[in-house]
Structures
1.
Amino acid sequence: MTVLSRNPRIIVALDYPSAAPALDLVSGLDPASCRLKVGKEMFTRLGPGFVEKLVGKGFDVFLDLKFHDIPNTVAAACAAAADLGVWMVNVHASGGSKMMMAARERLESLSHRPLLIAVTILTSLGEKDIAEIGFSGAPADNVIRLARLTADSGLDGIVCSPLEAAEVRPLVGPEFLLVTPGVRPASAVQDDQKRVMTPLNALNNGADLLVIGRPITAADDPQASLDRIQQEIAGFCGAQS
Ligand SMILES: O=c1ccn([C@@H]2O[C@H](COP(=O)(O)O)[C@@H](O)[C@H]2O)c(=O)[nH]1
C-alpha cells in the first residue's frame, strides 16, 4: 500500500444544495475516520472556497468534477484543482489516453500532486443504458477495457462499481485504486444507482474506497447512519490493518 493508506475506507459524498447541512454533518466527523467528496452540485453552488474550507479542517477531499475535454483543458483544470489542496481529482477515461496522460503529466510537475483517477462506466448505467450511447457488451466488459486504458496511461486508479472490483483487480495490480460508488447498505434504497453492493461485500470484492452519499446524507440521522456503516466494515478494516 504505497499510494496511500487505504484507511479510512469511506468517502462521504457531500451532495447538498447548500453549505449549512454539509458543514453540520462535517462538524461531527473526524478526518481520521472518513474522507469527503465534493461533486458538481456543491462545487457549482459554493465554489473553490468551500473545498478549501474542508481541506483546512484536515480532511482528505476528493474533488469529483469528472473532467472530460481536450487534453490541454483537462490538464489545466486538474492543475487548478491541485491548487485547492485536494487529495484526489478525477477525469473520464472515455476522454482517451492522450487526455489522461496530459492530466497526469501536468500534475506530476506540481509540488502538491493529488491522486488522479478516471471514471470508467458510471454506476447509474446498466447494459441497455450503455448500448444507447454506443458501448457494446456488459458494463463489466467496458469497465475492464477502460481500466486497462487508465492503468496504461499511468493514473492512480479508477471509479467503478464494486461489482467489477474482483474482475479488475488481477489486471491492474494491488496498488491501483478501485474507488467505488454504488454502495448501498442492505436496508437502503437503490435510488438512481444500477450496479450496487453493500459496504462489506464491496470491500470483500476488492474495492479500496467506498463512496457513499444518500444512505448517509439523506438519513434522518446522518451521523448514526455513517456509524452503522463503519460498524459493518469494522471487522474487515481491522483485519487489513
Ligand atoms: O460512477 C459514478 C461516479 C460517481 N458517482 C458519484 O458518487 C456519489 C454517489 O452518491 P449516492 O448518493 O451514494 O448514490 C454521487 O456524488 C455521484 O455523483 C457515482 O455515483 N457513480
Note: The chain is about 45% helix and 15% strand.
2.
Amino acid sequence: MALEVLNKDKKEVRVYENSDELSTDLADYIEGLSDASIKERGVFTVALSGGSVIRLMRKLCKVPYNKTVDWSKWYIFWVDERVVAKSHVDSNYKLAKDHLLSKLPIVPSHVHSINDSLTAEEAANDYEFVLRQLVKTRVVNASDISDCPKFDLILLGLGPDGHVASLFPNHPILEEKNEWVTYITNSPKPPPERITFTLPVINSAANVLVVATGGEKAEAAHMAIDDLGPKCLVLPARMVQPGAGKLVWFLDVEAASKVFWSVVPTKRVAIVDEILYMNEEV
Ligand SMILES: O=C(O)[C@H](O)[C@@H](O)[C@H](O)[C@H](O)COP(=O)(O)O
C-alpha cells in the first residue's frame, strides 16, 4: 500500500515504506497493465532495464501473479543491455533470466535478447532491425505520435547521477532522434560497452515506470521530479516524458526523501529555500 500517491504534470509518484511494500504494489500494477493490454491487443510487450528493478519485480513470480497473469502473451525486450556474453554476470539478460524469466512460463521465442556475438554497434543495429520486423508484424505496436515502437511497458531503474537505461548525463546519445537503438563504449557505469533504447523510443511507450529505492537515489529523484529550473533539465531521468503514455515513479521513502511533494513539512522549508535559491541563481 503506497504511503502517498502524488499526481502532477502527467507524473504520478508512489511512495512506499519499504521495498517489500513497493514490490507488492509493483507486481499488482504490472498485472493490471498486462491484463489491459492483452484484452486490447492480445499481447503485452515489456522492455526491462538492468539493476535492482528486476529484483523488485520478484513478486510476479509468486502466487497469485504467477498463476493469474497470462504469461503466454508476454514479449520481453531490453531497454538496455551490456555488450557481454549472455552468460556473463554483467548481462541484463542473465539477471532477468535468473530472477524472473526462469521462474515464469514465458514462451522462449517471445524473449528478444541481443546477439551477444556482435560488437556494440552491430548489436545495436541488429536489435533495431529485430524491433522493426516486430513492429511490421504488429507484435510491437507502432506509436501514433512518433515513428517509434510503442511498448506497452518500459521499466527503468534510476542511477544516482540521474541516468536511466544506458542514457547517462551529458552524453551525445541523449540527442539521438532517429535511431531506435544506439550504443555507447564509454559508460561511466561499468561495463563500458552497452546498447540502449533512445529517448524517442522510451517516450513513445504507453507506460513507463521508474523504480528506485534507497537514499543514494534521493537527489536524482528530486532533480527528476521537482520543478527546479533549467539546471535539472539535463538529467536523463527528467527527459523521460512519454508524450502519449503514463509515467509512474515507484519510490521507497528513502529515495523519495528529497522529493518536494512528499517530504514532511519540516524538510519542506529547506527544499523551498533551495528552489528559491536556484531560481535566483538562474
Ligand atoms: O544496465 C543498467 O545498468 C541499467 O539499465 C541501469 O539503468 C540501472 O537500471 C540503473 O543504473 C539503476 O541500477 P540500480 O537500481 O541497481 O541502482
Note: Helices lie at 19-41, 52-55, 65-68, 92-99, 120-136, 199-202, 218-225, 265-281.
3.
Amino acid sequence: MESFGARLHRAVRERGPLCVGIDPHPALLARWGLTDDVDGLDRFARTVVDALGDRVAVVKPQSAFFERFGSHGVAVLESTIRQLRDRGSLVLLDVKRGDIGSTVHAYASAYLEPSSPMYVDAVTASPFLGVGSLTPMFELAAEHGGGVFVLALTSNPEGATVQRATTADGRTVAQAVIDEIAQLNAGAEPLGSIGAVIGATVGETGCDLSAINGPLLAPGLGAQGATAADLRVVFGTNLSAVLPSYSREVLGAGPDAEALRAAADRAVADCRAALAMS
Ligand SMILES: O=C(O)c1cc(=O)[nH]c(=O)n1[C@@H]1O[C@H](COP(=O)(O)O)[C@@H](O)[C@H]1O
C-alpha cells in the first residue's frame, strides 16, 4: 500500500488543503433539527458524508461524539468510516490514544490493521507517555500505509503549561516531540506519514519545524477563534504541509448539503490564500 504521506500529499493537491471534522455536538444536532440519539447521530454523519465525502481531502470523525451512545454509536462510527472510504476522502479518526507500548499495540490493531472494523487511514495520538511508547502505531502505520498525528502544541489554552515546558536538555516538550517525528519521517518522499498536531490558536510556536517532513494538522480554526491568516503566524515558512482543520465552523452551515459544500469551499479558499497555494 502506498504510504499515508504520499496519499495525503495527492489528496491535498487534488482536493485542496482541508480537513473537516465530524463532531456531532448535542447543540449541532438540535440546530439541524435532529434528535440527540443514535438516529440523530446517524443522520448527521450521513449528511456530512454525502455532502463532503467526495469533496474534501480529509474527514476527521471525533470518536467521543459516537462513543457517547455506546456500542450503537460505535456502530455508526464504523459505518461512517466505510462510507467515507467509498467516497474517496481520507479518514483521520480523532481518538487521541496513548498508553504503555504493549497497550498501544492493541490500539494500533484497532485502527491501523486493515482487517479491523475501525480501520482508518490515520489516527490522532498523545505522546505524553513518551513518543517511543507510540512505536507500535508507527510500525503498523508503516506496514499498511497508515498515518499517525501526534499532539505537539494543542489548540486549547491549558496545553501550553505542559507542552511549552522545558526538558532536561533545554528543548521544549513540543520541540522534543517534533524532533522525534522528524527522525521517523527522515528521507520520506514526498511527505512522511507521521504528523504533528499544532493548533492554529497557539501563536508563535518557538519551535523549529523545518526538519519535520510530515503533515501539520492545524485545528482550532473557526469555533476556537483562529482564522486562516493565523496559520502564517503559527507555521512561519513551514506552510507546505499544513492541513487546516475545521469542525463546528463548517458543520454549522448544515444540514443543507449545498450550504455545507459552500462552507467547505470557503474554508479551502481561505486556507489556500493563507498558505499561498494556487
Ligand atoms: O486532534 C485534534 O483534532 C485536536 C487537537 C487540538 O489541539 N485541538 C482540537 O480542537 N482538536 C480537535 O479538533 C476539533 C475542533 O473542533 P472545532 O473547534 O469545532 O473546529 C475537535 O474535535 C477537537 O477534539
Note: The mean pLDDT is 97.
4.
Amino acid sequence: MTKSRNKDQQGTDDQYGGFHAGFAVLAGRPNAGKSTLTNALVGQKVAITSAKPQTTRHTIRGIVHRENFQLILVDTPGLHRPRTLLGQRLNDLVAATLSEVDAIGFCLPANEKIGPGDRFIAKQLANVGNKPIVALVTKTDLVDRQALTEQLLAVAQLGREVLGAQGWADIVPVSAADGFQVETVSTVLAGFMPPSPPLYPDGELTDEPVAVMVAELVREAALEGVRDELPHSLAVVVEEIIPREGRAEDNQFLDVRVNLYVERPSQKAIIIGRAGSRLQEVGSAARKGIEALLGTRIYLDLHVKVAKDWQRDPKQLVKLGF
Ligand SMILES: Nc1nc2c(ncn2[C@@H]2O[C@H](COP(=O)(O)OP(=O)(O)OP(=O)(O)O)[C@@H](O)[C@H]2O)c(=O)[nH]1
C-alpha cells in the first residue's frame, strides 16, 4: 500500500469533527463479486470485472467519499490455493494487503454453497488476527428469500467455526447488480475506520496510476469474447503516454503505446484475429474507455508480443510488473 495513515493523523473523534477514514479490503474467492461491489460502492467503474476468475491482477483501490467518512477500498486478486508462481505472488500480495487494513469484507456469493475454497480463505483471514471481518453475502438478486435465509445461516455458522463464538463482526447481504444494501456495506465498513481527517482529496476515486488503469481497460477489451481461450495468459504493459507532437491539429491528442504479452504464438493469433480485424476492434473499444478516463483524444498503438510461459518465469514476471 503506497499511502497509509500518518501516526500524527490518528486522533479522537472530536479532533476531526467526527470524521473517520481508513482502509478496507474485499476478500473472497474468484468470481465472488469483489470487483463489481467495489465499483458499486465507489459509484464508478475502477476495477475490471469479468465472468472468469482472477482477472484482477493489480490491487486497485476505489475511494468511497461520504460526508462523514472516507473508505479506501482495496480490491484483491482472488485469494486461492497457489497453482503457478503467479498464483503464489498473488497470495503474497493478498497477505501483505490484509495486514495493513482496518477492516475486511469477506465476499461469499448467495447463490453458491460454501465450499472448501471459502473455508480456506476464511481461515486465512482469521489468521490475520484482530481485524474485524464482515461477511458480505453477495449477488442476493440471484436467489429467493428462502435460499438467502439458508445461506445467511450457513455463513453465520462458518463464522463461528473459524472465529469462535463471536463469529463475524457483522453479516450483510448485498447485491451490487440492483444496489440492494450497497450503502449499508459502506457504512458498516466505515464503522471500523478510525477517527482521521480525509486521506485523499474529495472526488478522487482511485490513486492507481493512470498507466495501470489504461492497461486494465486494454486488458478487458482484449479478453472480450475470448476469455475461455486465454483468461490468465495475457499481461498488458503501457509503454508510454505522451503528447502527440507535430501538426497543430494533433496537439489535442495523446499517443498511448501499449504492449500485450501472451504466452504462445497461437494466443497471439487469437488476439490479432484474421488480418488484424480483432485487434482493431480491441483498439477501438479500449480507445473509447481510455479517452473517457483521460478526458482527451488519443492515438492508441497496440503491439502483441509472445513472452513464452511468462506466468512461470520470475524474470518475465518482474518485467511485466508483477
Ligand atoms: N447477478 C449478479 N451478478 C453479479 C453481482 N456481482 C457480481 N456479479 C457477477 O459475477 C461475476 C464475477 O464478478 P466479479 O466482480 O468480477 O468477481 P471478483 O470476485 O472480483 O472476481 P476475481 O476478479 O476473479 O477475483 C461477474 O460476471 C459479475 O457480473 C451481483 O450482485 N449480482
Note: The chain has two domains: 7-190, 210-319.
